[in-house]
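Colleagues,

For the teaching module next term, I've prepared a clean inverse folding example: a structure given as tokens, and then the sequence designed for it. I'd like students to try predicting residues themselves before seeing the answer, so please don't circulate the second half yet.
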């Protein structure tokens, strides 16, 4: 991103600034956002929400009214990447959506729609499209990456030669297969000098395209980057909140996919509202427990990227992971379910990653372990569910009351029982 020292001009200057070249005007706008963020004096312990809101509103008004715009690139033409790119273009930002396939780009230019992922929605006329990665990334202020987790590292490697100060924001939720790396970890690996952030929240793309009121969280250690993303995406129907807990926000977005699969399976069994509420709250307990062990703030999981995203993903058939769970609950194999879905369901990989990590670190994750047993060990879902219900006593909210002896004892009991011959016999009886 442009440094505050790169420009001594404020974006509110008079008409004499209009004589500048386009790149200078664009850099001036971003510099103005960063300068105002830096001068606001808003620190972690002295947050002033009204100051943030008025600053973002003023910046958005200037973006709409002046030809100087934030230059944004969105990499990945899936439903969420397209929805975010469309929102930025509608807000007046200079926005380019990159899609790998040249034929797809031509079709999007011609029809102004994303026929594969958002076929019923007209995209903003100002949104630009490209299959040329270098041209898309060069000279941009922020590069948003919305490719599937499996392609995230490769995408960063491909854009590395064209990075010369751009900030990176990940829109991808999940963990890299076999490494347990979150997207922020991959950014630090591949682009160690870059300024970066992550976005997460209850953001079902179709609802955003329908202008249904929605919200997201931009998490970054860089306050100027948080301000810039808020200015670019904040609108009447889409609110952008800020956080500096990158790990917590990212884990919320990754872990909730596990429980969306669990809830989809439960819906296939036509469970009651009590059961759904139990799954949802115990899922939140697992998420926060795992997050604390990873260094996140447990309070982050009470926000949009935690309970907000968890609720949306676990209660909507628009969720890919929820649909995978429903198919599994109806007896379909995991391979057949993924093939029928036709899109990436990050929760399938996340279950395996978190199961292995939690087992190794001794983190109590009973729902995750149960899903792993059903999906990867071919255990009967009913038998696994009964085992969960018989698992003994545990405190309800672990970060409110002290971590008592019953939790430690139950964790030790679960480890022992998971390897006992009686469990294997029970599994056979339930099949």
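(Answer key — instructors only)
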């Amino acid at each position: 991103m442009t440094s505050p020292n790169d420009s001594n001009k404020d974006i509110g200057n008079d008409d004499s600034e209009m004589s500048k070249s386009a790149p200078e005007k664009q850099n001036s706008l971003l510099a103005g956002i960063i300068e105002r963020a830096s001068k606001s004096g808003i620190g972690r312990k002295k947050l002033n929400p009204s100051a943030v809101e008025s600053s973002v509103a003023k910046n958005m008004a200037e973006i709409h009214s002046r030809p100087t715009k934030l230059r944004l690139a969105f990499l990945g033409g899936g439903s969420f990447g397209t929805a975010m790119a469309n929102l930025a273009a509608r807000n007046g930002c200079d926005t380019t959506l990159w899609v790998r396939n040249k034929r797809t780009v031509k079709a999007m230019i011609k029809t102004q729609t994303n026929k594969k992922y958002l076929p019923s929605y007209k995209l903003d006329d100002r949104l630009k499209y490209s299959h040329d990665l270098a041209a898309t990334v060069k000279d941009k202020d922020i590069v948003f990456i919305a490719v599937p987790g499996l392609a995230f590292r490769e995408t960063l490697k491909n854009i590395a030669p064209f990075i010369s100060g751009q900030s990176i924001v990940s829109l991808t939720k999940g963990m890299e297969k076999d490494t347990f790396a979150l997207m922020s970890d991959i950014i630090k690996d591949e682009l160690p000098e870059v300024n970066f952030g992550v976005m997460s929240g209850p953001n079902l793309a179709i609802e955003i395209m329908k202008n249904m009121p929605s919200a997201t969280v931009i998490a970054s250690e860089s306050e100027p980057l948080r301000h810039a993303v808020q200015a670019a995406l904040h609108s009447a129907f889409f609110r952008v909140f800020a956080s500096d807990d990158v790990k917590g926000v990212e884990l919320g977005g990754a872990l909730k996919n596990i429980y969306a699969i669990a809830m989809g399976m439960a819906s296939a069994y036509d469970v009651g509202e009590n059961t759904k509420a139990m799954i949802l709250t115990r899922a939140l307990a697992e998420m926060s427990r795992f997050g604390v062990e990873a260094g996140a703030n447990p309070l982050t999981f009470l926000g949009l990227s935690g309970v907000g995203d968890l609720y949306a993903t676990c209660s909507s058939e628009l969720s890919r992971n929820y649909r995978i769970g429903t198919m599994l609950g109806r007896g379909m194999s995991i391979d057949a379910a993924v093939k029928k879905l036709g899109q990436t369901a990050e929760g399938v990989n996340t279950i395996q990653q978190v199961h292995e990590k939690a087992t190794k670190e001794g983190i109590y994750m009973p729902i995750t372990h149960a899903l792993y047993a059903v999906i990867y060990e071919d255990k009967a879902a009913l038998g696994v569910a009964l085992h969960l219900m018989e698992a003994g006593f545990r405190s309800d909210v672990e970060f409110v009351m002290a971590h008592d002896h019953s939790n430690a004892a139950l964790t030790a009991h679960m480890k022992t029982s998971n390897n006992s011959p009686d469990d294997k016999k029970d599994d056979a009886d339930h099949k």
